[in-house]
Specification:
Structural class: mainly alpha
Number of domains: 1
CATH topology: 434 Repressor (Amino-terminal Domain)
Distance between the termini: 47 Å
Number of helices: 4
Mean pLDDT: 86
CATH class: Mainly Alpha
Order of helices and strands: HHHH
Length: 84
């Protein structure tokens, strides 16, 4: 049985925009990852609409994946620079 950690982030409009910018994603690119339009992302970031619970879970999962990739990239860099 699969168990998922549903203790997700609240994803305020500011958090969504910051997440997108921190990861150098356009609204369109983030929308493609989430299965929505860039205009939908714009509306979330402006507080005009709120993502569904399912979308918030997906956003949290994408955030975890991207953080994991950044950590792996850092470890590779450490090994590379650590050996002389």
């Amino acid at each position: 049985m699969l168990v998922y950690d549903l203790d997700m982030q609240t994803w305020t409009p500011e958090e969504i925009e910051q997440f997108r910018k921190d990861n150098k994603l356009s609204r369109r690119a983030l929308g493609e990852l989430l299965g929505v339009t860039g205009n939908c992302i714009y509306q979330w970031e402006r507080g005009l609409r709120e993502p569904s619970k399912t979308t918030k879970i997906l956003l949290s999962r994408i955030e975890q994946e991207l953080k994991g990739k950044k950590k792996q990239k850092g470890k590779v860099g450490e090994k590379k620079h650590g050996k002389k």
